[in-house]
Amino acid sequence: MYSDRMCPGCMNDAGGEQICSICGYDMSSKNENFCLPVKFLLSERYVIGKAISTNVEGVTYIAWDNASDTAVHIKEYYPKDISTRNPDKTVSVVTGAEFNFNEGLLDFIDINKKLIATELQAMVPTLTVFEENGTAYAVMPIISSITLQSFLERNGGSLRWEQVRPLFLPVIDTLKDLHELGIIHGGISPESILVGRDGKLRINGICTRSIRKISSIMPYELYNGYSAVEQYAQANASLYETSDVYALSATLFRVLIGTVPPSADTRLSQDTLTIPSRFADELPRQVLVAIANGMQVKPQNRTRDIDTFKNELVYGETQESIRKNTNTHVVGRHTGVETASSQKKSKSSLKYAAISAGITGGLFLVAAIVVCVVFWESIFGTKDTGFNESNLASMPEIESVGDYDPNAAESVVLFKVPDLTGSYYHQLMDNETLEHFNIVIKGKEYSDEYERGMICAQSVAPDTAVEDDTEIQIVISLGPKEITVANVVGLDELNAKLELLKQGFLYDNIIVVEKYDSESKPGIVLEQDPVYGEPLSTEGIVHIYVNSYKGDDVTSTDDNEDSSDSSESDNTTSLE
Predict the structure, then answer these.
(1) How far is CA 524 from CA 430, 530, 541, 547, in A?
(2) pTM of whole model > 0.90?
(3) How many C-beta atoms lie closer than 10 Å to residue 337's C-beta?
């Protein structure tokens, strides 16, 4: 069960400390006024902690589930621009926005109920959804992960196709399953895909479609470079399956190429999308073609659904067919523009057009990719225009989309384990050099060598060479088992407590007792028990006796009289 010793920032036992030694959360911190407060009991079950994110749809909190005795994430439906938080923490709707609020509420509940009923391999699941406080809440498990964007930034900015293919196939399958449930994600990007410590990708942050529209009431959340052009409409922005196809293609472009594509609304008037020459030569041809078709700006020219996209991406054409098209096609400069309808007359003509298209005049992405691939020698002068068979040959065969092939695994890369002892756990969170290790807190123990909150032991010795994602168990120091009590006599109450806290004593174990002494300074510590220099466990009780004497009115009167007498004496002297 949740206790006051637990940290609202990470839901670990903080030992009653003011600053959590695990996540650095300050126990005096509060959530924003529009959020539920820290330690609010929701549904007689969930203890609300820190608000970890907010967006146009609502607020996500870390929370403690008293029923399952574990930490969870809770997303609250709270469209900020049309909602208000009442003093009793219920939610009211801004006058005139009732329809928008209720439409979004029904969508929020419906989406999460579908996620509960369906197990999707690459989706952050919903455990339960319920209504309370005039709104709704979805409960999700906490999965140790970072965003794909952060993962790329910490791993060189891009990945090779051999790495990407097994990572993204489950994501593609899951997106297809969502569409079959009637759910359009509407926000696929490197920020909404999580990379778990288990090495799997998971989709997060599904849109509530009626909320994520551009309107005068609720602004739409766009992911620049990844949102399709139809999502930029000034009113009644639409979401289709092809919107997700565009976002997924743009995300793959970012992962493989290492740069964010220009926004779709910019490309509509001036398509500036380009691909560096080395990627045009290294990537399998069908990958380039699939991304090109998926990133067509206009929806009617774009790949129509996820199933078609994944077939193009994974299978494409046979090596012989592509080689035949490449060797027999005569490359020339085109000034005409071929229509999308003529490209779709047949399967063969579609793929032939996708490979040989220089005819789009720079308006479509196909032109940018094919120019780099086919006009290689004339533009770059370093490679032959013939098809590179090693690209397809290096791709492992799979029986069905979503399978993993061990042949795609790379050589084992070893990473040297650093010395973690002497560091605080929260200092490890932003250390990029530790991303290749799975660091787990094994427990806490007393240590005479390390201060309270420091890492005092680790399961894998420093400088050991280990594989990626090797688990390293660490132990957090509770400080010395016994410490010599500091001298706090003569300090005021606040500074006395701070001195004892710095020694490692628990805040709740510092007991203040009032004691009256008119001859001592008001508010200071008169005595302490145990006395200075006596050894005591850090979990022991320390009593400090604080002077309750506030200063006497009699003394004040006497002082005034003395002052008056002095004044009179001064006056008399003056007159003389």
Answers:
(1) 42, 17, 19, 6
(2) no
(3) 11
Pairwise CA distance, residues 368 & 372, whole Å? 7
- Mean pLDDT of the region 369-398: 34
Q: What's the confidence (pLDDT) of residue 412?
A: 59
Cis peptide before 284 (omega within 30 of 0): no
What span, in angstroms and rounded, lies between the C-alpha atoms of 473 and 457?
A: 8
Q: How many CB atoms lie within 10 A of CB 367?
A: 20
248, 305 Cβ separation under 8 angstroms: no
List, for residues 361-382, the tens digit of each pLDDT value.
343 343 344 334 433 333 333 3
Q: Could you tell me the pLDDT band of residue 297, with boundaries at 50, 70 and 90?
A: very high
Query: Confidence class of residue 546 from pLDDT cuts 50, 70 and 90?
Result: very high
Rounded Cα–Cα distance for residues 215 and 238 (Å):
12
Amino acid at 292: A
Rounded to an integer, the average pLDDT of 289-295 is 92
pLDDT at residue 235 in the model: 54
Backbone angles phi, psi at 505, to 5 degrees: -75, 145
The helix or strand, by DSSP H or E, that contains position 472, with its residue range, turns out to be strand 470-477
The rounded distance, in Å, linking the Cα atoms of 71 and 19 is 19
Q: Which residues contact 344 (CB under 8 A, 6 or more apart)?
A: 350
**Buried residues in 48-86 as b, exposed as e (16+ CB within 10 A):** bbbbeebbbbbbbbbbbbeeeeebbbbbbbbbbebbebe
294 touches 307 (CB < 8 A): no
352 closest CA partner among 372, 336, 379, 374? 374
**Mean pLDDT over the full length of the chain:** 78
Residue 372 near residue 278, CB atoms below 8 Å? no
Tokens of 331: 């490359």
pLDDT band at 279 (very low <50, low <70, confident <90, very high): confident
Q: DSSP 3-state assignment of 23? A: coil
Q: Helix crossing, 347-356 with 365-374: angle to 10°?
A: 70
Q: Answer for the pair 263, 225: CB distance below 8 angstroms, yes or no.
A: yes
* Residue 45 in this model has a pLDDT that exceeds 90: yes
Q: Which of the two residues, 388 and 560, has the higher pLDDT score? A: 560
Q: What is the DSSP letter of 395?
A: S
Using a 10 angstrom Cβ sphere, with 0-12 exposed, 13-18 middle and 19 or more buried, the burial of residue 354 is buried
Kindly tell me the number of DSSP H helices and DSSP E strands found in the chain. Answer: 17, 21
- Residue 187's Cβ-count burial label (10 Å; 0-12, 13-18, 19+) is buried
